[in-house]
Batch of 4 targets.
Target 1
Amino acid sequence: MSIINSIKKDFTTRTLVLISVAIVINIAVGQLIFTLKLPIYLDSIGTVLVGALAGPWAGALTGALADIIWGLTINPTVFWFFYVAAVIGAMAGIAAKMGVFERSSPRWLSALIGGIFFYGLTLFILSLTSFSREGLIPNAIDLTRQNALVFIIVLFIGLAMGYFFLQKAGYAGFAGLITGVVAAIISAPTAAIVYGGVTGAGTDLLVAAFRASGAGILASTMAQGAVSDPFDKMVSFLIVWLIIQALPARFKAR
């Protein structure tokens, strides 16, 4: 009975309106990224926002419906990932109940998240611009060693940005990283079995590179997810954190 009451509490009229808007945001942003073939998704911003504001059940429904509607109308490849989107929404809701979007995190944690973000972004860019003729992705350790000065500068910029700009967003960024790891693990079997690792997204480039390195389909999709998903979900959680900070307190209370 308590579970039913919890579900009912999550679905007010305002929540249903918010879910509709969030689904449009997911599909619009996600399809744009898909069309541009970028090795990231950003199709969970609306899902995370609903989860953060209205709870895990609403977040899960938003993620699932967004992928189902998107898959049935525009991009069939996303349809079978609806369960992953549901988990992302539920985890965002659980994270919100733990206060990650409202509680002030230690500034050292925000600085750490900023450093990880900028390091990951730089590693992403260098990896995609450093393919060998055989289509192999350079080892992350080798890339870091070869571009040590660049990474040192970027790391300091990230630490400073996190400390002075994000300040209180450390918990949200960390929750995004954890959500991304879970999403990578549970989405890999579908990507490998249903699509053979090729979904038409920009992340296919990473899968192909891992395959060229000798890894199997499942291992390659898992590796691609491990590279893309934590970074992607951290970005989505941080964007939602910024949105929530900008919302009037009265709106958030409602």
Target 2
Amino acid sequence: MESTFFVDLLWKLLQALPLTLLLFILAIALGLVLAIGLTWMRVGSNPILTRIARFYIYVFRGTPLLIQLFLIYYGLGQFAFVRQSFLWPILREPFNCAVLSLALCTAAYQAEIFRGALLAVPLQQVEAARAIGMSRLLMFRRIIVPIMIRQALPSYTTELVLMIKSTSLAGLVTIKEMTSIASTESRSSYRTLSVFLVVGAIYLILNFLLSRILGYVEHRLSPHLRVMPEAKRPQPTLVG
């Protein structure tokens, strides 16, 4: 009986997994596009755009994601001009609202990660690229972007892990993702501990795989930081 219950539970959760992953991927992709624009505004020379970006980042980093989700899903529909606009077919769908709220939130965090990575680019390398006559576009592609990616990856990995966990909030706006399915199963079976241990294990596996993949990418992009095996290390020469 126990094995039948867990097999049935696992099957239901795995059926909801693609929706959870789709929610995560769309939110991260849209958030990345917004973050690039925010980073450009944040480090640019236009003081008005800089203030707008700073205010956006301050608001979305300083308020709970759950509140943002409720404001977008429940709040926007209260305005008549929103219901009569071309955006209403998008905003009336809970999945779209969840993607939008997750994307708007992660964009603020990603923008600060990118800004910090950009500021970490050594000025000497930029000056060297200018000295040999590199164009701004070539310098950005060959020098700045690779260094930015290496600098941003550890923090970006953490942000992606947090976003996978944040998708569990989508169940509060009627989306049948894994946590929502787990809550339904918990109420019907009265096996709260068992149900949420299983769904927690699935999230743990997802985050482990994501961390390992991005850790491998970081390792490949940082050859100068790799530790040489003992057999290949140059041995010190004794002079006497």
Target 3
Amino acid sequence: MLLDELNHRVKNTLASVQSIALQTGRTAETAEEFESAFLARINALARVHDLLTKVAWEGASLADIVAQTLAPYDGRALPAGRAGFSGPDVRLGPNAAVTLAMAFHELATNAAKYGALSNDSGRIEIGWRIERGSEGELLEITWSEAGGPPIRPPKRRGFGTQFLQRALAREFDGRVNLRFTAPGLNCRMRLPLSAKLRLAA
């Protein structure tokens, strides 16, 4: 059973690495850009795997995933008061944890290059809540930036935009809305809080 589970995990991980390599290669304009983006994404994947390994791959809390995403910027780009996150306790299954960690990585990388983390005054707020309706529970996550340099909608859809809008929709039947506003980027994710999101293995 352990060997079967290990084989399953390794195959999933290799498939993720292959997908990251292919998609990064399609959007990178130079070999240097490909190397930098690819290694950063692999490191993000490794960090979330470390987080899951500590809990025997039984899932992870959304708060831990967000904190881990911001950790590389802590003390350098995030002095006190420049980033905050809050929301109810939500535990995600391993697949959901990996997917959301990669989504947050793309948002943080974009913020460091062009948005709220690219200057000395920007701020990021990440919040989430659970909506309960007739069709079940819905997890809404909001990433809001303010105080960064003026931004414009990108001329082409890069890896990050495609990942956010396609991967979350495909894997979890979710919807992602990206708005490039004067205060900064705003990303709202609305994901059905189903067993697939909470307990996916």
Target 4
Amino acid sequence: MLQLGVNIDHVATLRQARYKSGHDKIVPEPDPVLAATEAEAAGAHGITVHLREDRRHIQDRDVHTLRKTIRTKMNLEMADVPEIVAIAEALKPDEVCLVPERRAEVTTEGGLDVIAAKTSLTRTIARLRKTGITVSLFIAPDLDQIRASADVGAQYIELHTGSYANAPSAAATAAEVKRLVDGAALAHQLGLRVNAGHGLNYRNISGTFTIPHLDTLNIGHSIVSRAVFVGLRQAVREMLEAMKPYPG
């Protein structure tokens, strides 16, 4: 069964828009921990959070509280930088997804260049796996990057679906789907497990159903946006319903 990881970063984005520092009498809201609880209650298979270097949304206190609270699976997105790697080693989430990170970007804009960062990634992945953490790499569906992901010791890849989600025409969409299909097939051949995410929503998710070997779709913005109107539990349930036709 195709699983859903709910990314709750933008619940924290809303909180940080108002509460950027501690308050003695006001409890900052909305609370990402409560959001995780609601998502799990609706049937989510895991919770994803991105602890960025600039702490623009999720804060250190969030990840530590979430680690104690989450009852499904915690997926920590993070850059391959010493400070965050050390936090992950101490926190021991179920899974880490290493992603590229730039201060100027609104959200993660592309996949890791695994080939260029091979030495550092090999070292970091070994450190994280030594603590029992499953490691994934967030990459474009590029065959050379997929081969490099296997070489550096990753257990999973997460295919970046942004180019699919933003394709400007039907022909471009079909081409992006083919890249994702071919990438997932190669990853499976190499012994990698496959997740996917970025830009997926209730309208375009069905286009991913031809991608083979998918374990988990990690989706955040569209679910949080839908939750504004119907509540988080209902938004998660609707996404799970939309995912049901995936053939496996």
